[in-house]
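Form 7-S
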Amino acid sequence: MRDLSTRFQILACLLFILAGLAIIPYLGIQNDEALFAAPLYQLNPKEFCFVAFHHRVPLMVMTYIGTLKTALYVPILGIFGGNVWSVRVPMLLAGALTLFIFFKLTMRSAGPTAAAIAGLLLATDSTFLLTNTVDWGPVALGHLFLVTGCYYLVRFCAQEPGSMRHLALGFFFFGFALWNKALFFWILAGLAAGSVLFIPELKRLWTTKRAVTAILAFLIGASPFIMYNVRHRNATLETSAHFDPPATAFAKVPVLEATLNGAGLMGYFTTESWDVPNPKPVTTVRGKIAWGIARVFGEHRSSGMEYALGAAFLLLPWWWRLRGAWFALIFMTVVWLLMAFTKDAGGSVHHVVLIWPFPQYFLAIALASIPWKRVAIAAGAVLAAMNLLVLDKYVLDFERNGAGGVYSDAMYGLSAAIHDSPDPAIRPRVWVTDWGMLNSLALMHRGRIEVRVGDPAFMTDTPSPQDQKEIAYILNDRDALFVGHVESREVEPGVRKRLAEAAERAGLHKEVLQTIFDSNGRPVFEIFRVVERAPAPPGKV
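Output:
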């Protein structure tokens, strides 16, 4: 049985990795996805650093995102460079490791049948796959540390040999996760609520020795985050802990539903069919496979996961005594309510997915609780097949319609069109005049271009005196390149027009050097300079 379980785990992880590898090249590197590398290739604000031996060491990327991922990528980018594969494959592998540990966690806490169903559901879940592979959240390391910490605490609760070590490791990984992203506060609240109500073994924590071990391990893991907030007077909570009224909070329910059923990233990662009058022909092997599957089974935007979770409540007579199911329900409820009531949170997929993998855990326990094991496994297999059909829809849309919005594969062409230099003396300056390119270009060129933020001063029709000084400074940089979106792709509408108008008022002219198209032939970016306006020909006014 153990050999069979190991083989199943390996096959599920391989399936997950192969699906991720198939998706990686379709999407350009997104600005937030590349944010982790900003401390390496751009000037990190001094408030996010501490000085050691006369060197600045970055602790945080933002008030709520730490530099753990930055540190992990230093050797990766040094060896493999800054490209889509070096950025995404490590997070894909982190997702596969999460899946592997999740299987072991479910095996220990809920049994082999639940583990097989949960592992299969998570391995085929398009939301989990896409948000881990394209880790713009970021969420991949958070999932890994959550599942790993829970795994060690389950071993502690089982009083296995070395339980104190398991306790320390569990809380250390939770601390690490908090440094990685402070939104792990939500996760800690959900874990605490579920544990207090349904995990009586954790009462053993409250002996002096165990409590000290757990607290110290957590503090060590979270120490960079704590150091930052001690030095800057709780800056994370002051900037992030603001709340929405109930009406706004519960308006976020459709995002929860779309995240559960896999449709949440359609039209965001992908371009919808109704926006593409002339889709590309399907040419790749993976595209032809996806097209063949769609011709037989149709195109599916939803896996029906939300209905499956609802139907799981009908199985209450079988699972109502299983505390793992109740723990998962309490965890999901607390975490979602916290994110829903937090201002500017809970309204996007990369927040809701932080609840993962507990929807799969709950559903697997509910299915495994029924006395007909073959029926339970068959139901799990059907749900996994529905997951795969949604994933097939993503692949087919990528293949025909291309990536959407700020994930455009035109980013590769933009990067290739800008020539960099390892010599700081001749390193080209590039003004980025719209959101969505700054971090991506800095990462892909690994600091061999000097990227500058050029859009804030052009974001208003009534620039302040400070904005006007900034505009004059930018326009006076005649040797620099400028990059922006074409008008139809602007993230900050009107920036392009205001820059051109400001140049004309200064007696200058915007000279477009190159327009960058995506793989569907749509214009996305433009590279230009600001030059002296040519004098009018003789006899002309």
